[in-house]
Amino acid sequence: MMQIRLSQAKIESFKGNVLPLYLISDKDLSKEDITFHTDNEEVVILHTFKSDDPQSIAHGALLTLVGVGHATVRADYAGESYCCEVSVREMRRAKPGEPLQYFFGDFHDHTSKIHNHQQFADREEGFVIDYLNFQKNDGRLDFAVISDHAVTTNDRDFFAGFTGVEEIAPSPVVIFPGAECEVTVVEEDRFGLPYKNSGEIVTVNSGAYVCTRTWEEYFEAMARSPFAVCVLAHPFISGHSTRGCWNFSLDRNNSPAFKQLIKGVEMGDGDIRSSNGIHEYMYSLALDQGFRVSVTCASDGHGPDWGYDRLVGKTVIMAREKSKEAFLDALLANRFYATETGNVKLFYTVNGQEAASTLPLADTYRFHVSATTFKDDPTAKPTALRVISDYGKIVAEFENVDFSDFDFELKSDTARYFYLRFTDEKGRRTWSAPVWTSREIDPPKPALTPIPKNGFTVTELESGRDASVLVNDDPRESFESELETATYLIDMQKEYTVSALGHYTPYTDRRRLAENPVISQKILANFGRDKFPEVATAVSRFASKYEILTSTDGVHFELCDKGQIRSFSGEEILRFPARKARFVKFRVLSITGREWRPFFDDLTLHLAELSLFA
Fold it and tell me: Can you say how many angstroms the Cα of residue 260 is from the centroid of all Cα atoms in its chain?
């Protein structure tokens, strides 16, 4: 007689956990007529995977424990019922001042190099269990995240991540099964050109994964996983599907549902990858929009090259112990940070409170910093510190001091957040979790009216070249400077009241980039193993730091704005106090690559479209 039982008859766990429950038999039950039920959805929410898809399963479900109390989960099959009693307590949360330990991990890893759904389903090696056993046997990471692409994976393999964790227990590595959810929303900008208001999101502690073309479907699926931990993956990666960068458009995608889900922004890998520089801008953009996020470091490795050595950099979690519960507590509380060397031990307080905390409202902020190394490596010792606040602006800089025990004070009656960026003698960076100051974010900004560009001219002052292609209302036509930095004089031909300048980033179409001789030469000279070197090189030519000056007579100019361009998908509108002007200077002080790698210094500036707004 066939023996059938549930994988567990009794579960005692914590609120927020996601774990599997399934029928076990000597017969394959994955396609049988099985239904799962819970008698208390205030305690347990079920995620089931029964459908017509060949890779769906009927014999198991994921349980998301959403409330404290008791519930019975029942599986009905062939006239029989199989029951599991579930008891849920509160998640233990670290208390302020409680001693915390440091743990290292890779927050974005794939089990396979395969990017095709059917090939992934039909593969004969590189299974989830292979990944889990590798991590268990390697044992040097404290935690790792399975994040196979949602468009590639399937219900069977997604569920196998959860069952596999139980199968290999005990393991020295805490594995978070998950997926790289794909939200591909393509919209048209005011020029009628497509751009991505979307991206890929590493999602763990969720009962579902999502591949969709609408944000609504993503939020609907995640609504049943209230303790999911989601990280914006490589937020400015370029050249996929639609020309241009991913762009999460957080000035519009900032609903309470999205803010509840997003806990982190990915900085990229730990090899000082070029894109790490512009990923940091997404970190500050998210904080400016009120997202409660910190930063992760991840390999984005596509197996079978896994483990501690796959990634130089690490995500560091500060938790009370090595356990899934303690790690989830830390992730939900933003107690994690990213380090490109994997060797910076960082702790800091502001007004006596540890990062990541919300401070009582104040106008004086006293910082205590302890930044040392885990392993003895003098080159990894932090030698410089930048304090970042609203709009990604540096508000304090310190160099060549002992950061192992360092105190300083800042005054501000406007700051909404602070975070720290350390660099070592080789330029390798460590980004801290933030602290928040209790101030509200900016209200939504009013829409602006673009000034018609009839008759506008643009001149690159340093070379004297005509750059009027920058005001032809077609961002597909760009201007490639022969200079690293330059000033562009816009003559509007008559006086207007202006309050903003629009800067449009050139498209980065990966299929055509390698045809550019400047980029091809740079790739040959400097890249060996980068995944998308032509994209990195192209993005390195984007305008970075800038100044905007206005004049009524073309002789006397007044500085009205300066800062850092932080968005690289389409148009970023740079606002300033309204003033009358006929002439506007857009002065590009650096390109993005100059802040990433020294060998990008001789690349030249590349612009698309400039606009002015009333």
Answer: 15
CB burial class (10 A; 0-12, 13-18, 19+) of residue 260?
A: middle
Within 8 A by CB and 6+ apart from 246, the residues are: 196, 198, 199, 200, 234, 235, 236, 237, 238, 240, 569
The answer on pLDDT for 239 being more than 50 is: no
Assess whether the previous peptide bond of 170 is cis (omega < 30° from 0): yes
CA distance 545 to 536: 18
**Residue range 352-367: mean pLDDT, rounded:** 96
pTM of the model as a whole: 0.92
User: pLDDT at residue 205 above 70?
Assistant: yes
pLDDT of residue 187: 84
- Size (the chain), residues: 614
CB atoms < 10 A from the CB of 116, how many? 11
Alpha-carbon gap, residue 110 to 128, rounded angstroms = 9
Distance, in Å, from the CA atom of 72 to the CA atom of 61, rounded to the nearest integer, reads 14
Q: Which residues of 541-557 are buried (b: 16+ CB within 10 A; e: fewer)?
A: bbbbbbbbbbbeeeeeb
Burial of 473 (0-12, 13-18, 19+ CB in 10 A): middle
User: What are the counts of helices (DSSP H) followed by strands (DSSP E) for the chain?
Assistant: 10, 40
Three-state DSSP state, 521: helix
Percent of the chain with pLDDT over 70: 90
Beta bridge partners of 489: 459, 585
How confident is the model at residue 517, as a pLDDT? 57
